[in-house]
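Why predict the complex rather than its parts? Because the way molecules touch one another can change local conformation, and only a joint prediction can capture that. The input here totals 1150 residues.
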Amino acid sequence: MENIITFAPCVLLLPFLMFLFLGLTNYKWTGKQAGIIGTAGITVVAFCCYYIALQYFFGGVGKPDGATAYQTITVFNMEWMKMSVAHPGLTISIGFLLDPISAMMLIVISTVSLMVHIYSFGYMFEHGHYDEGMQRYYCVLSLFSFAMLGLVLATNIFQMYIFWELVGVSSFLLIGYYYKKPAAISACKKAFIVTRFADMFYLIGILIVSYYTKTFDFVEMNTLAENGHTLVGNSMEGLTFMGLSLTTLAMFLIFLGGAGKSAMFPFHIWLPDAMEGPTPSSALIHAATMVVAGVFLVARLFPVFAIDAPNALEAITYIGAFTALFAAVIAVAQTDIKRVLAFSTISQIAYMMVALGVARFSIEGVEHVETTLGFTASMWHLFTHAMFKAMLFLCCGCIIHCVESNEMAKMGGLKKYMPITWACFGIGCLAIAGIPPFSGFFSKGEILSACLENQCTGIYVIMTLTAGLTAFYMFRLFYHIFYYEENPEYATSEHKPHDQKWPMTLPLIVFAVLTCVCGFFPFGQLITASHEAIEIETNWFVEGVSLTTAALGIGIAYVLYYKKNDKPAKIMAKMQGLCTAASHRFYIDEVWYGITRSFIFGIICKSIAWFDRHCIDGFMDLMGWLTNRASSESKDFQSGHVQQYAWVFVMGVVVIGTLALYL
Amino acid sequence: MNYNQFFVMQPEISLAVALILMLVADLFLGEKSKKYFQPFALAVFAIHTAYCILAGNELTGATETAGAQAFAGMYQTSKIHFFVKNMLNVGTFITFLFAYEWNKKENVNRIGEFYTLMLSTLFGMFLMISSGNFLLFYIGLETASIPMAALVALNKKREESAEAAAKYILTAGVSSAVMLYGISMIYGSCGGSLYFSDVVKNFTSSNYQVMAMVFFMAGVMFKISLVPFHLWTADTYQGAPTPVTAYLSVMSKGAAAFSFMVILWKTFSFSGVEPSTLAWNKILWWVIIVTITVGNIFALRQKNLKRFLAFSSISQAGYVMLGLMSGTAAGMGSMIYYLLVYLFTNLAAFGVICNIENKTGKVGMNDYNDLYKTNPKMAFVMTLAMFSLGGIPPFAGCFSKIFIFASAAQTGEYLLVFLALANTIISLCYYLYVVKAMYINHSENPIPAFKSDKMTLIGLTICTAAFVFMGLISPIYEMILSWSFGI
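Output of the joint prediction:
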């Protein structure tokens, strides 16, 4: 325990210091030096994280002798601001909360971040020199690592909100890294505005909850009172707003913030565009860590959701299921390889949401049909998905680095040029399709069995269907890149495609190994909603069905895309309407754009602008004019004559005396 | 007489020792070793500062005015007194750092005078802060004022410097006369004693006594440069050597404001009575509004940065006075916190001005055009200081304003707080003029790039770090608050 206290501040401080150091010494370092500094920093952080997480899970810190459940440990919690006037006792603290999910997130974030730091060395090195913005790049990566670690370790919802926004900012900065590209600029603005818009709901949710509970603290919020309800539920008991229970409403608003970051429908529009950023940062932020912040948020407040706002959880399930299917359908029709992965990310995160949505909290002594399996499954999938999706993105980076294009049409037949990338990409595809023994098989299987176990058959069917689609579009991508028809330019080109140097291949191999083994981790022992170990049984029916569907998906992809043929074109011609709609992402972007354009800009903004220009500006101009006028009229007052000063002094005394006596 | 009583006066005694050491050193150092005088003086003063901080730490259990006293209540001290003195020590030390280069270049023959005069005024301020008797307060005030006039005139060859000193000493004379008259009236009407504890027993708010209080207040308000007793400020600030201006605008204002608060709360108030019904409260209400507004309106037109900061400091003094209105511990805490933040922020601004004036002799706002191209660090520090003075988050200036507004609002002074808030908008405007000059306006011949000396850089770093981070570190405010007391 003492060791953890020593290492804990390092986890938060070091990335922040790195950020300050790289940010404030701008352009002092060459690209290589900046990279080494950043990577060295994150290496230390990663080791601290591993140490803490291992100590927590296996070193007896989380589970002291005799305890059956993992403890929630507040390593430190510094009071930062007291809101003494309106709400006595309400304080905002900055702290370090250790429980199974935050310990797991420590591993995820530090691993992916470290790998991405190393990988970027190779990725940012092009045409014989490092990118000129290297220092800025590593600086923002450090900021991101700091923010993300702070987010998962937050002891209270307000701290989480602060880091939540910091994460948003660093995502904004990384998407807009190539700031000379107009597409990158509009993408980063889009990402920031959409997520910020969703965060507004989150903030409202926080305010409602904290208004009634008089605390921001997660532990206090989640603790079950004697009547079996949480503090949030008890303090808002019986309150309704427009026919909805206020607890449900507030928790749903909080979820909406998470939906923004986790790209749930209809806030998903920013994520595909965010692929304009450098590919390693996409792997870190838009595949593995930041986009699961929404899932993490729901998991963090899971007892509140499950016990006091089951309706909100139900809504989450439906939104998640719809998003999963919807994104998978779109992914089928995309031709930009990073966008396919982006939609697949949306779809997979939706899986995690669904898993949380179907899980319920079982209270001791009360017979419950539902189980908390979904919670474990969701976290498990979060973990495995982070590993294999980061790997897939990094593979994409290698391919893009060679081909210098994101379009599938420019690729094909790359297998013989890039064997390592081929192998890793293949493992990733098998994992995401849910083929044993790769990690995705286990985690996805648990999600599906959780759906079935808790009597959500409809959801189960949708998710199985989505799993089939996932297998199909991933293998479409795989075959299209590595088999299909070789691009004739390769053979003649001076720079033949090839596997990259070690900084880029090492992370791939590390992730590939992790993808192979992390399905066998005993997640049921470590991460559960109640912190007590649960038995995970393999549901053979579910596994059988999902394997069949996946095989079907792969089979169809094999038939259509292994060799160049005209079948895909024919099928597309038959289903033209659907294809066009899917490749245009079902026009959701246009809908948002239309709403923004006509309603927000056209009606609200125009009227506000008018009011602002004529009333507020007018008033301000008047004040300014008056101030200026008063200033120029009164300048003679300050004449520089001492006699006058003395006169004013004495008159001042007289006036004030009169005031004091007669007022 | 019990000579142990002197031990209560640790800061004063330590300061006196430092002062004497410097005097002796100045006298006996030969021509050749003159160059060691400044490092010696800095070292001595640093030791004094450290000693005061340690002594303040050792003071136990005293959070009330009567925490410890000496000479039958003539001299009072407590944790908060120590804190204010330490604050002034640190501020003075930073001023010395800024003055280092100026002393070497322009003030070569009067370095010793500069340090000893500074310490004398500081000694006066310490007495003001700790006084428990009007007489001691008056002596402190004069000890702080008269050497100050000499300091203002230190640059003898410059006509403005001499003129500024003449104006200062003449107006200070008028103010002292009025104040002494007030004190004599208090003596006459409050049972023939000048001890605060005696005066408060006999103070009944009769017309005669209120008039006496007004006379007394006028004298102190002159020191804090509240309107309508502020007219000397601009001329003196502009004419004085810049380090002296920095000192004047922060230290002497801070000391006077704190002792003003203690005297108003401890002698002219009745405990258990709503503060807003007290006579001084009504006076201050108007004085604050007029001060903030007049300070702002005049600051808008200034082209000379020192004069500009003079008016800015007048308006800031108005904000400081908001802390007095509530009469609660929160009021005192927020006022001292405000002073602390203001000290570092204003010193940073003056540090930049002083540095640039040393190197180029320029103090006009137009001279600063395009400064960021040639001296990005100076422009950056100045910008941060202006933001903090204007109260833009996340700098400490924002938090200090919030705390002081909150303390005034707690006792229902909503209109006052609203007017003060509206005034911050005007103040933002002129603070941003400076930023605009440095970053947006173009200039044919901007201030050339130069290398700043180490002392100035150290001083600026301390100040900047302080006002950037202090707002984020809440224990500082909490600590001040825990030592504060109300009426």
